[in-house]
Amino acid sequence: MASKKKILIVGGVAGGASAAARLRRLDEFANITLIERGRDVSFANCGLPYHIGGEITDRSKLAVQTPESLERQLAIKVKTNTEATAIHRKDKLLEVRDSSGKTERLAYDKLILSPGAQPLKPELPGIDLPGIYTLRNLQDMDRIKAAAEKAQQILVIGAGFIGLEMAEQLIQVGKQVRLVELADQVLPQLDPEMTKPVEQELIRKGVELILSDGIKGFAPRQNGTGILAELNSGKELEGDLVLLSIGVRPESGLAKSAGLELGARGHIKTNAHMQTSDPDIYAAGDACENLDPILDGPSAIPLGGPANRQGRCAADHIILGEQAQPYPGSIGTAIVRVFDVAAGITGHSEKRLKQLGVEYKKTAVNGFNHAGYFPGATNLTVKILWEPATGRLLGGQVNGHDGVDKRLDILATAIKGKLTIEDLAQLELAYAPPFGAARDPINTAGFSAMNIRNGLYQPAFGLSGSDDTQLLDVRPAEVAKLKPIPDSINIPYPELRSRLDELEKSKPLTTVCTMGKTSYFASRILKQYGYNAQSHVGGWTVAAPIQRSENNNPSTKSAEEASVVAGDDTVVKLDATGLACPGPIMRVREASLNLSDGEILEVKASDAGFLTDFPAFCNATGYECLGVTSEKGIITGSLRKNRDSGAQQSLSPATVDSNGTTIVVFSGELDKAMAAFVIANGALAMGGKATLFFTFWGLNVLRKNPSPTVKGKTFMDKLFGWMLPKGPGKLPLSNMHMAGMGTTMMKGRMASKNLPNLPDLMESAIKGGTRLVACTMSMEAMGIRREELIDGVELGGVAEFLGAASKTGTNLFI
């Protein structure tokens, strides 16, 4: 019979509850008491957002254990609604206070602290207003769910894991969501290029994404209900409720008062057996700091998995002593689902390694979640970081639609096992066409890393062509025309050997393709012919800018609905999954030519660009676009060959708006910009539509003034931003500018004659439905970022302009 140890546990949930259960299994006779400040002693806090969104319908399933079940099944005393207020270490007493204010002192032989972490709530004006919520426990969940049912506009502050989960769930119950993040990306835990698919998915699903801007304060809305949030930029946002999700702070006040040693960020320091600086006091969960097994430094990971295992390790050491296995440390493996996209990280990010001053190498690859020839294959992007001297893995990140968790778990296991990039390349993973490929993306990442380490190719992580360098686009010509890469030369890979004379040997060059593989092949050819060539890692899939609009998606009607409308029309099905651009659209072209009158073509593709390419193809060829949908990375488009139309054989549009206009605004001069908006307003007045495509100097018309602070700009980008005019109020005249005097005189004359000014013309045009499209190539060349442009601007390339121009009777260049 074991001795009757008196063991107190402060805090339940993952760390405390798992410690309590393990203690009882190891020692039937120990006197175990669990003290919990709240009402619920053990619940699935990671599931809270999903009950708010209705995906988990049964609230009771979130309660893993109740006080009654713990007492009945494990003979554990539970004191809920009771707060631990002081530790008297010398006397081994814990002072507690219940909800009535009554205090008592409880004796212990061993004490486990698992108080968790509380959501950050910075001292800002209006932070305590009704309608501002944080999410930590079941009661918070209930309050948010009740408030959200009555709300329509919701502000989510913070785009970390919880913020993204909340944004997803609120959109799915029909709310308007604005997501605000101080960093210039969502998921700041990951590296920026690995979050792009998540950002694109948020935008596609209707989340208004506001990056590089933080909260300055809150105030009541003037109508008496809801919240007015002011951002650091000065922008104001209205919401019926606000959800704060900007991080957590360890609840270490009790430990600090007791004189226990804390880490640099306030966490309770522990050793390998979860003991604090007092060997009779242990700590587990979000409040504690342990070991980083990768770099041997401190690690504090606020996740349920580590907390659960730490509680178990503490219990083992209390009962088994030195026979207990030590806690091996936490590497921070985490994953999030955002609608149909998933992204995750394990180990260290590139940003973190830079902060720590650790030398590393990196690569990123694209591949399919299973065999590309098997239906339903979707893209995965895998990024790995490794130690240059040894090849040992330091971190990994994955994004995609399906199979992200599988690859992330492999990388996490490899990191814990101290595997190298060579080990990664040779991992033997499960393969059958529905599950994987003969060479998994994990293997490909290993091979890519080895090629870099062995000097087979020089990696490039940015895209820029200049007078001193060459940027070689080796994608097919059709793709390069549809989605041009700024400042690049297009020589399709199969033609490269015969067109080498078009490249300058004296200038270094970077090859780029869609997914990163073909550009590597091209760089190997060029290097062996004596060129100074490097290959872009990850390809245009990783480097392409976020698209802010899906306006060219004309419908979300499914092909099944379309076939009902079509009556007896036949539906021809085409599987183009597993093909990279331009494969899907070329297959559509081939199949559409064989359609009979009235037949419907339903196409499935997994290339992300197909969502916009398919409607553009229909518009350009005269087929009727019946709809485009996207689910779990599979894009389904349907078109019909109209009985009375033969236009699909040519590239002429099905219909032309004779009163509409499409204008390329190349100039950044006041009078020319005014002319463009006068014509646009005229087209609207005549019942037509207008699209203004802003390129190079014309982008200045769309700039905000004052311009927001944008992180990550190069010196030249900042220099351009300083020299160029910011918005319509700063544009010069094309003639008689006279250092600003002529422009001021002209504005005065127009005002005296009651003529409209440029801001008024812009406002009326936008309200009337004019599309403002900024050329992404020009934005890149001039160092202008999306957040520097006025609201409502879409991003597009030459295909966007040509598609709009094909539907209007007037096309101008100003």
Molecular structure report:
The chain is of the alpha/beta class and 814 residues long. Helices cover 29% and strands 24% of the residues. The chain contains 24 helices and 42 strands. Strands 5-2-1-9-21 form a 5-stranded parallel β-sheet. A 5-stranded parallel β-sheet has the order 11-18-12-13-14, with helices on one face. Strand 15 and strand 16 form a beta hairpin. Helix 1 packs parallel to helix 8 and helix 19 runs parallel beside helix 22. The longest helix has 17 residues. The radius of gyration is 30 Å and the shape is globular. About 3% of the residues have low confidence.
Provide key terms for this protein:
814 residues, alpha/beta, globular, five-stranded parallel beta sheet
Number of helices: 24
| Content-based structural category | alpha/beta
Shape field: globular
Radius of gyration: 30 Å
What's the pLDDT, averaged over the residues?
89
Beta-strand proportion: 15-25%
C-alpha end-to-end distance: 92 Å
The largest sheet, given as strand count, sense and whether it forms a barrel, is: 5 strands, parallel
Spatial strand arrangement across the major sheet: 5-2-1-9-21
pLDDT < 50 stretches: 550-567, 645-654
Would you report the number of β strands?
42
Please give the share of residues in helix: 25-40%
